[in-house]
Amino acid sequence: MKKFLVAIDQGTTSSRAILFDLDGNIKFTSQFEFNQYFPKNGWVEHNPNEIWLTTLKALKKVIKKVSLLKGKILSIGITNQRETTILWNKKTGKPVYNAIVWQDRRTHEYCEKLKQKKYENIFRRKTGLFIDPYFSATKIRWILENVKISKKLQKSNNLLFGTVDTFLIWKLTNGQHHLTEATNASRTMLFNINNNTWDKEILKKLNISKSILPDVKNSADNFGSTNKKIIGYEIPGLELIIAFLSFILIGLIFSTLFGKAILGYFDNLITRIPFAGNVYKAIKQITETFSNADAAYQKVVLIEYPRKDIYAIGFMTGETKGEIKDRKKIDMVNVFVPTTPNPTSGFLLFIPKEDAVELDMSVEDAIKLVVSAGMVVPPTK
């Protein structure tokens, strides 16, 4: 019998389910878009039921494909839009309000009040994050303050919060598991990254009860099995897809600490691991592509992004030309800003040349910094 892995990719505009064989090859993809709602200027919402139903529809199409291939799904992984906030009734499973999307800025004024109270250092020291509407914490508080039923449910311990991963796990397991993992938790602005727990002091300041929060597990843990009543198929080993990236991080640490000999041994080892090996090779390939490119495209730069006083690592890929330059009439450069922990995706930005601060860091060291989420820091030259 053929064996497969499934990745659920729940994004900002669509839900996808991707079928992989054990060598990491994509065998089938199903994808469905859902609506975007903009009730007011700066507000962005999704309907949680649409998120769930498009995910379920995509997953069922993949399951049907597996049946045609006479195969078996060994495990499902979930990757998701992060800070998007959903609160729902524990008893009925019904959301109390639309999902407030990570792009939403409605809590800007409240965030400014928290800063005026000199809370910024507390939040930064404990969560590693600036106080900003981007993160889940103030979105939760907004729902509690503006949706009457939410306070009542919180008081009776019948309210649950989750980012999209938690909501999908709850749905897939038919309400048996209210869980998240550390990387999603760390984007809520409620999670203390020093002791890996929900922070009591911050919860108190925001009047959020710990009872609504999911238990936090490691990314590689088992998050339960899908409920047969929900998808017609019981799949053990529901996990978050970020787990296999730990292998990549180990490889980067080995290459930094122990040199080429052990790295060569590690390469041979990890490339034999189904699925993880293919991802490792893909990220290694992009590193080598940047490193072996023409010298003009090897510059690592620091840019102010996505807003003032926040900075990101980027790769300058050339000077901006054509219509973009003609319209702006200033010297600009193309900068690729990779995402963490997967540098194969990212954003292409066109910025004034003077705003790109060139670093002495090598491309290889910059990739290590990005993939490791800042844990593998290159030496100062």
What is the helix fraction of residues, given as a range? 25-40%
- If you consult CATH, what is the topology of the largest domain? Nucleotidyltransferase, domain 5
Number of helical runs? Answer: 14
Number of strand elements? 18
Q: What structural category do the secondary elements indicate?
A: alpha+beta
Mean pLDDT: 83
The N- and C-terminal alpha carbons lie at a distance of: 54 Å
Q: What does the model show?
A:
- The protein has two domains: about 1-235, Nucleotidyltransferase, domain 5; about 245-370, no CATH class.
- It is α+β, with helices and mostly antiparallel strands.
- Helix 10 (about 245-255) packs antiparallel against helix 11 (about 260-270).
- The longest helix has 21 residues, at about 50-70.
- Residues about 240-265 have low confidence and may be disordered.
- It is globular, with a radius of gyration of 22 Å.
- It has helices at about 50-70, 110-115, 120-125, 135-145, 150-155, 165-170, 180-185, 200-205, 230, 245-255, 260-270, 275-290, 325-330, 365-370, and strands at about 1-10, 15-20, 25-35, 45, 70-80, 85-90, 100, 160, 180, 190, 195-200, 215, 240, 300-305, 310-320, 330-340, 345-350, 355-360.
- It is built from 14 helices and 18 strands.
- The chain is about 35% helix and about 25% strand.
- The protein has a five-stranded mixed beta sheet, with helices on one face. The protein has a five-stranded antiparallel beta sheet with strand order 17-16-15-14-18, with helices on one face.
